[in-house]
Amino acid sequence: MAMKRIAVIEGDDAAPEAMRPVLELLHNLNLPLTFEYPIVGQPAIDTVGSPFPDAARDMIDAADATFFGSTSGPSGASLMYLRWGKQTYANIRPCRYFQGIASPLANPVGIDFVIVRENLEDLYVAVEGDLAELAFLDRPGRTTRKPLRELGQGRYAIKAITREGTERIVRFAFELAKKRAKQNKVTCVTKYNMLRESDGYFLEVAREVAEANPEIEFDSFIVDDFACRLIREPQRFDVVVMPNLYGDLLSDAAGGLLGSLGLAASGCYGDDYAYFEPAHGTAPDIAGQNIINPTATLLTASMMLEYIGFDEQAKRLESAIEQIYADGKVLTPDQGGDATTPAMVQAIAAAM
Ligand code: IPM
Ligand code: MG
């Protein structure tokens, strides 16, 4: 197989403590993989005066995928590029329980669903401003029944839901459902009862895509109802597709449902690029202690291996993670163990 190039951004605070041992594990698989390290964030500001220099962008472009540790602060510019620059419109966040995970639920067995979050639109178009700018819009709100200019001083944010953006994310969800063994179901989550135009459109387009895919079951929930069901009956979900902001909120909730965000993997896919980043933050409170749970980073690495064509190694890595949880002997403190991050990764590497 041809050599694959991975651009690596190790991230901030405790994130590199998870990334480094995982990179070592990947390296030791002896695959045709090269790792390149674009300089971004504070080090890039210090050396070339920009948080996201052209050289970093070129390295990301030349790579087959980017492996991204969680960032905070000045590394944000690279995240913007990886999403909007590379048009990675599908954020995939799997939530799967396996034996040995310290879950807060009484019965987590059988949880296995994937959140498919639209990654570029909705409130994330980030068009915000002063309400006064919209005074010319001489139309009353459906609820307030007053023209905007009578609302008084304040700010606004635009929620944009497009046909193209919705069609491609819902299609992505259906294709994923076809590949999964489980229930072959797609669930759409919106607030269409209140946001009739924007979320109503998302649901309408989702229904059209569903009609074109009759072999997959389709259902729809209002987001508040879904939040409740997510806790009460998570086992009934398979692939769940939703606009950007709900996906952001509910994927953290899904991580907490399993046990912690330390278990939550994430990949962002476009038509010709993808980047992989654990869903958790940079955990500044435990930085420097080498106890950050590497599971999210490992599961994320497994998604990346699959994307670049190393399916077999991706599966072996996942099975090894499962085995280490089932054994319960080498886990980080958040999972009730006393292992360090590198020790847990080494145990998983040995189990592969
Ligand atoms: C995520 C994060 C980001 C988001 C932040 C860092 C902008 O919370 O990837 O879920 O809101 O998308
Ligand atoms: Mg988030």
How much strand content do the residues show? 15-25%
As laid out across the biggest beta sheet, the strand order is 2-1-3-12-11-4-5-10-8-9
Round the mean pLDDT to the nearest integer and report it.
96
Number of strands: 12
The N- to C-terminal Cα distance equals 21 Å
Uncertain spans, ≥5 residues at pLDDT below 50?
none
Q: Can you count the helices?
A: 11
Q: What's the order of the H and E elements?
A: EHEHHEHEEEEHEHEHEHEEHHH
Overall radius of gyration: 21 Å
Biggest sheet record: 10 strands, mixed
**Structural class, judged by helices and strands?**
alpha/beta
Small-molecule binders = 3-isopropylmalic acid, magnesium ion
Secondary structure: helix percent: 25-40%
Basic shape: globular
Describe the structure.
This protein has helices at 15-28, 41-48, 54-62, 76-85, 163-179, 198-211, 223-232, 244-258, 295-307, 311-327, 341-351; strands at residues 4-9, 33-36, 65-68, 90-96, 112-118, 128-130, 155-157, 185-190, 217-222, 239-242, 267-269, 274-276. It is of the alpha/beta class. The radius of gyration is 21 Å and the shape is globular. Bound molecules: 3-isopropylmalic acid and magnesium ion (MG). The site of 3-isopropylmalic acid has 2 residues, from loops.
How would you concisely characterize the structure shown here?
This protein is 39% helix and 16% strand.
